[in-house]
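Here is the promised in-class demo. Please do not try to memorize the tokens; focus on the logic of going from shape to residues.
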């Protein structure tokens, strides 16, 4: 059990299909290797992929937790935590997406307060919409990680998000360019910097393309724990080192 407050990291994107969830799971895997206690909180409420990717099939989810808080039926937080392994626990997104809109954003900080001293790191997965749930997650974060691809829609949307952060004088975000999704270079590094008005902080290389991603999902495995790709491990370890300094 962690003795200090957990570092809170939100992994997000500016559109779907960037490899955001896989990046979060791989980051959890690196923390696992460092024997850090990790909670994954899936706030991608309408299309949560954490439970399917990890082969988690459990009645406990973020909806049941919030509903019990709302109706004064909440007992122990352990009843809502799904154990993946000795170091990683999960609070999944709603099994029934019809319950997603029943989750009030005001309960997200309440949930975090229940787990903040139990873990070294809390990883929150979100969708790419700036809805109330995502906004609360971003505000609560020590570090925000944007996962983008090398295409114009991603870059233009990221430029807008960078402008918002700069307007609000927020500097606790980093940009991860995931080259493993497309495997093609649409824009050079200088082009990307010019478009988003910001540097890319980390790169997941093209060589990390997971052609057998379905196999990982079927077996509920975290790719980085079963695919010792040195460059990707180094990238994720650099993120963890940055987090440890915060």
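The designed amino acids, position by position:
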């Amino acid at each position: 059990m962690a003795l200090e407050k957990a570092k809170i990291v939100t992994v997000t994107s500016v559109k779907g299909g960037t490899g955001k969830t896989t990046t979060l799971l791989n980051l959890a895997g690196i923390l696992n290797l460092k024997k850090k206690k990790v909670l994954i909180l899936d706030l991608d409420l309408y299309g949560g992929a954490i439970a399917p990717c990890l082969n988690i099939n459990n009645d406990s989810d973020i909806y049941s937790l919030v509903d019990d808080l709302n109706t004064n039926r909440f007992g122990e937080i352990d009843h809502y935590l799904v154990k993946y392994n000795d170091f990683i626990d999960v609070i999944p997104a709603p099994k029934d997406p019809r319950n997603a809109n029943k989750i009030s954003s005001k309960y997200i900080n309440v949930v975090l307060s229940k787990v903040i001293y139990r873990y070294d790191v809390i990883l929150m997965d979100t969708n790419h919409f700036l809805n109330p749930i995502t906004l609360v997650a971003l505000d609560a974060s020590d570090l925000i990680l944007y996962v983008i691809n090398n295409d114009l829609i991603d870059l233009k949307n990221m430029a807008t998000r960078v402008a918002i952060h700069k307007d609000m004088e927020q500097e606790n975000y980093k940009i991860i360019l995931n080259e493993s999704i497309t495997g093609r270079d649409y824009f050079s590094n200088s082009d990307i910097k010019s478009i988003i008005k910001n540097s890319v902080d980390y790169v997941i290389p093209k060589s990390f393309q997971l052609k057998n991603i379905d196999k990982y999902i079927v077996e509920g495995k975290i790719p980085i724990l079963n695919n010792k790709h040195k460059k990707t491990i180094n990238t994720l370890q650099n993120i963890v080192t940055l987090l440890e300094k915060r």
